[in-house]
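ok so heres the complex, two chains, lmk if somethin looks off
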Amino acid sequence: MAVETLSSVPATAPLLARAALTARGRRGSEVPERTLRVEDVRVDRARLAAYQRLTGYDVSDLLPQPYPWVLAFPVQTALMARPDFPVPLPGMVHLENRVTTHRALDAAQPLTLEVTAGALQPHRRGRTLDVRLEARVDDELVWECDSVYLSRGRGTEDASRGEAPPALPEGPVAGVWRLPEGLGREYAGVSGDVNPIHLHPLAARAMGFPRHIAHGMWTYARTLAALGRGSLGPSSSRVWFTKPVFLPSTVELVVQRSGRHVLAGLRSRKDPSTTHVVVTLDD
Amino acid sequence: MPTTRRAAVLGGNRIPFARQFGPYAEASNQDMLTAALEGLVARHGLAGERVGEVVAGAVIKHSRDFNLTREAVLGSSLAADTPAYDIQQACGTGLEATILVANKIALGQAESAIAGGVDSASDAPIVVPERLRRKLLRLNRAKTPAERAKAAAALRPTDLGIQVPAATEPRTGMSMGEHMAITAARWGVTREAQDELALASHQKLAAAYERGFFDDLLTPYLGQTRDQNLRPDTTLEKLGSLRTAFGTGPDATMTAGNSTPLSDGASTVLLGSEEWAAAHGLKPLAFFVDGETAAVDYLGGEEGLLMAPAYAVPRMLARQGLSLQDFDLYEIHEAFAATVLSTMAAWEDEEFCRERLGLDAPLGGIDRAKLNVTGSSLAAGHPFAATGGRIVATLAKLLHEKGSGARGLISICAAGGQGVVAILEAA
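and the predicted structre for the whole thing:
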């Protein structure tokens, strides 16, 4: 695997623009074997505080479990904007995420981030792409994350469906969240993920969605925050983004704890049979 | 009749104090209180533990923070079935919280408790002018479109504006510093004496950090590991060069250097019965002996706004059969250097002690070598409600270092002409 070290975290906006402009020409099924690496990534405390406030965490020195994903987002974008990358970035949908924190992450510690794209796999609605993120303090692996994205297109009907998420618990509602129309723009502001499907109904419609949708990574972070301090220390969590959350909307949080294992999720307030997000946490 | 027992101070934890609009500008009261509480929980192995109760408060508080302390408990690793409530007694909040929980422990109503306080001068609630507030409420009440139009039409561009809360006495319209300047002049407190006290505060706090005194009393927060206001290198010359901030003419002796800055921070103290402490492998640092509050009528200018502790202390001493000199350590909150100096001057004054306190003889002086030995608010900063917890934890540890039986006095002045004082004794 070729490891390329970037001198610093790149700016996201020009990369996204390049990815959008070059979206049409991308083809092939081979993902180049390449790891992008950035050393000495420092946490901007004001941005972290804004993220913590928007996702329901206390403002503190501890990085929320999904936060290194936010830090690595520009690096991931850089990888996907490369000319030889086979799938177009715009319109890509986040399906799943699995994160393990080995040691509590302190905002004062500079991180080394690595992004590696894995293989393309057939899916019923296109192809999926695996992306692996790793964060190190000095040489110690402190955090790792495997994401699965869907590049929509011609599907393979008999494609393996992967591991299905557990069914949401039936129990009483643990919370009701009213997600405002502008949530996607607010989260874009703190995370740098300015994918148009989150920003405005018109932009989302251009990408084939009826309305704009909440960032999956926001719903994930907000849910973990609601589960307490468990995910701030060594722990593993997993999330399945099963149905998009259109904005604005009202969702219900449901939680089931069994010892150190927590199963939680968001379902539609209007139609509780619609499951938007399923999260598991083990600490 | 319940019998009483001794309540022990088992430890404390705070976050470093920061200056207004400094590194904690983005942090809320709840964020800071949670951070201080979580550090206390971690240090004393209380994760998952149900504590008898947690009592804390903030002086400047958003209306949305009606359950500030309970919310901080829920955000901490304490068991979620730990009850909590908020109190507020201006700068006396933290010490008053300590008195309340110590009394519950003494009465057997609680086995363990946490007292604390927090304040942010940065993340202050913004208040619209009263006239605008009333018009907006009227608009909100309006039911029909006609009513709404009428209510909306009453809004004027000149109604706009925001009011940031200030340390101003509602009934006098004077700032705390202006009040203090009058008292300082009344007691003839000089600029030099104030600057010397401020210098000593910085030097003693810096020395305490150097010897690692705060290592088990403090959790770093948002990159801050020491009190931001601390100036280890300040000198009398530097302090003497500052312009006066309060008072006029020859009476203007108070500066930004010998007054506390507006600050952000939080503190917590763990208390418990001796049995609870033993069961949790914790060693008492000090026992809570007694507490007293007093208030003075400052409205007519008869008495100074911040002089109530001068009245509270002799009442508590009489109850305990102690003299002012029966203490190994004194913690007199440095709201202003002049507060400490005026209070001590009053206790030494024969006329004041006779006429105001009804005593036959003056309380007398205190040994300055025993006063605020690790510095106080002038150096550390003063997030209003957090100061009490800082002082209780600091004094408990200092007394523990001195050895069993050592006695310490705490005196804290508060807005509204109030004062909260207490006695601790080394375990």
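quick notes: The helical segments of chain A are 12-21, 45-55, 67-81, 183-191, 201-206, 216-226. thats all i got rn
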